[in-house]
Structures are given as C-alpha cells and as structure tokens.
Amino acid sequence: REEHPKGAPSATPPYNLSQYFKQFVFPQNECELHSFRLSFSQLKWDKWIIAPHRYSPQYCKGDCPRVVGHRYGSPVHTMVQNIIYEKLDPSVPKPSCVPAEYSPLSVLTIEPDGSIVYKEYEDMIATKCTCR
Amino acid sequence: SPHSRAHPSSAKTSGFLGAPKGTASDLNPLLQLPRSVRGGYALLPPLLKVLSDRGQQSWASESPRLQPDSRALRYMKRLYKMSATKEGIPKANKSHLYNTVRLFTPCLECEHPPRDLRKGDVHSVDLLFNLDRVTALEHLLKSVLLYSFDTSIPVSSSIRCLCRLAVKEQGSSSQVCPSLSHSPAFSLHFEARKRRWLEMDVTSFLQPLIATHRRNIHMALNFTCLLGDPQHSTKLVTPLNTALVPPSLLLYLNDTSEQAHHRWNSLGHRRTNPAWPRPGDSPRLDPTGDQGHEDSQGKRASRRR
C-alpha cells in the first residue's frame, strides 16, 4: 500500500520484492536424499557376495532450514535445538540431516565354511531424510 | 559423547569406529558382538572389519572361503531371483515367510555298494552336515533335501522311489560310515526328464534336531527306485546312483534378530501371515507361500503378538 502513517519507517520499496522473497526460497543445498551406487567388486567382495552385484545405499546431505516444522517430520525439539545453537550456546550442534526411513536388502553370500546363505537385512537403503 | 570426553581413557574402547589403541580384543570389533550374532551374519563381520581397518587396503582381501558346489550355487541364484529384484529389494508380493535360506553341502558322504538289483535300484548314502552357521535366533520353517540330476546321464522318464532316512545319534558319529538303521520311509514319485531338482521335505524329521541347535547332523539315506508304473518291469535303464548327485540340505529359516528384515513389519495393514512359529511349534506353514487365512479377530491378535 502506498500511503504510510506519519513518521512510520517507509516499507520496503516495491523494486526490492525479489530480494524480499529470497529469504523464503528453499536454500540451495537443503537437506535431501542423494543417490550413491556401489558395486561389491569395488570393495573386492564380489568373491563372496554373489548377489546383488550393485547396491544403492543412498545418503542424506544438506542444510537444515531454521524453521523446520513438519516439512521433514521433525519434532519440535529440532527448532528448540536451533534456538539453543543460535541464541544460547553455539557449541551445541545445529540439527543434522539424517535418514528417517530405510528399506531392506536381500543378499546372497558364500560363508567361510562353503555353505551358501540368502539373507534379508533390515535398514540397508535410506529412503527418506529428516532434520534432527 | 560427553562421558567419553570427560574420561579420555574410556575413549580407547569406545566401539570399533574410534582409532583403536586398546588390546587385541578392542581392535577386533567382532569380539564386541554378542556370541549369538557373531557367527551368523554374513555381512556384519566384513563391514565391521572394513570400518576398523580404517585406511588400510588390507580390508579388500577377505579371508579365503571354501568354494561351494556349482549346482548348489546355481540353485541359490535361482532362489534369489525368485525372492528379490535385481537391485536386491525383497519382493514384497511374495508371501514367503522366510528371511533366511541356508544351503549346506555334505562334508562327508559314504556310498554303500548297491545290493541285489532285482528289487530295482538301491542307492544308499551316509551324509554328514555341519550346521555351525545357523544362529540361535534363526528358527526353522522348512528343511528339504535337494537332489539334482546329472543331466548328462539319460535317466528314464518316470521314476518311483521309496526312500528311507535315518539320523545317526551323536555317539555313533565316531564311526565314519555306520551301517544303515531303518526309520520312517518317504515315498517319492517324479518325472526325471522334466526335473533338474528333486526336493524331499524332511522338516518334521529335522525340526527337533535343529530346535536343539544340533551342530552336526549325520543321516543315512537309501533309495529303492522302480521304473514307471510298478506293475511293469522294475529295472532301471541306468542305475540311479550314477544319475543322482549327493543331496544338499536346504533350511528355510525365520531370523528373529534386529538386523534381519521381518515381512510382517513391511506388510503393515495388508494380510498378515499367521504368527511366526515359536521354537516349540512344529512348522505347519509352508514358507514358500502358505495359504493360511485369519479372521479379523485372529489378525488383531497375531499383530499384537
């Protein structure tokens, strides 16, 4: 609105709107899931891990926004930790970007005694990130 | 953690990820795992070793392993393809109950000379299986003796066999090849031509032994096989014992430990299979796809359990 009450500081001039909205845009490197594929031959384990040949554990990386809220399924504690870090004690770490959910992986391996085992392991592939 | 910061001496033994400065037992993360987990996890020991040998290339050279039988390897690769996707994700739509399958090849087998062939072909063998890799948290769902045919030898099409299976008591294992003692018989009828594998369900037979965590199972098997339908000639074109390869022992298990994937966890609201057999239960479930249905009451109860 153009008119301002007498003596009030003038509002941000309209041409600076893009600057004004910049503070609400998602930060460039926000906390999110990143893909990473490895083959067991890189670890030289393909002699005893028969399957799968490739494995994508994925990982979480990026900055946690100050006002996390429900977007990451973060508890209120995350915001409290941020306030402590900013206002009270910078030695308390900022919230970190970590996996929130995983999926299992089936592995076929040769045991030291020569027997063969098919096993389904829990929590082997990160599927979702959160700030904690 | 603050505690370890306050007492730098305890930092020395704070898990395998820290730069180990302690005695050999601290160096080896495996020794920090509970015994029940240590032996059975194919993946954990090498992962822990990699993380404790930080920066040294030595972790790449795994300790040498005995090489498995190629036929057994082919069977397990086929089972893997049926149970998981190419990326290794367990197939949720498979209603199989097992999350672990172990295949053991016999570490000792004694052939007995075939007796008179007039009664058809008698194939006798003693087998010793070492089950050290089965952990205390792995409960048996089903066990199968897996015969594969040496397909290079032409075996007539339809074969009817009577198989007798005897388990040798612990004491008699001192004899390398004790004589056969008779026991319940299994009758099998199969079309050799169509089958590359012959599975003989021995669950009820081995359940008590595996439930008591028997480490070595010594069993004696003898087959009497007849050609085609019993009314006609009984002689086999080719003696079976040249076509039958000594069997492997297949154990379908439910691993109840934290690290293992539990299907009912991921099935969530969808149809939940009947409750897991407890160690005392003899598994009536077929882990490769039981058709058990539960009413809603049962479902709630089994989920609560």
Tally of contiguous helical segments of chain A:
2
| Structural class by SSE content of chain B | alpha+beta
Structural class given helices, strands, pairing of chain A? alpha+beta
Distance between the termini of chain A: 41 Å
Determine the fraction of residues in helical runs of chain B and give it as a percent range: 10-25%
Strands of the biggest beta sheet of chain B: in what spatial order?
2-3-8-5-6
Q: SSE string of chain A, helix = H, strand = E?
A: HEEEEEHEE
Continuous helix count of chain B: 10
Task: State the low-pLDDT regions of chain A, or none.
Answer: none
Helix content of chain A: 10-25%
End-to-end Cα distance of chain B, whole Å, is 36 Å
> What's the count of strands of chain A?
7
Describe the structure.
The complex is a heterodimer of chains A (132) and B (305). Chain A is an alpha+beta fold and 132 residues long. Chain A is built from two helices and seven strands. The radius of gyration of chain A is 24 Å and the shape is elongated. With 305 residues, chain B is of the alpha+beta class. In chain B, strands 2-3-8-5-6 form a five-stranded antiparallel beta sheet, with no helix packed on it. In chain B, strands 1-9-4-7 form a four-stranded antiparallel beta sheet, sandwiched between helices. In chain B, a hairpin with an 8-residue loop joins strand 2 and strand 3. Chains A and B meet through strand 4, strand 6 and strand 7 of A and helix 6 and strand 1 of B. Strand 7 of chain A pairs antiparallel with strand 1 of chain B, so a sheet runs across the interface.
